[in-house]
Write the structure tokens for this entry.
Amino acid sequence: LPISFLNLKDQSATIQVMVKEEAVGVVAYKQLVALIDSSDYLGVVGKIIETKTGELTVEASSFTVLSKALR
């Protein structure tokens, strides 16, 4: 099953986001992979988990594109 990892950043911190196709749906996952660019603004809903390596990660249940980055 497809899984993608993203890093969300603001001025004070960075957190990893894990997006599973089975959690967000096939259509949403394909849109994420095809349309999201570095520096786009995303809103993510999910629970905080700790990975096997100890990194705090948001396990996404949904996401929203808040704004596309202008280049």
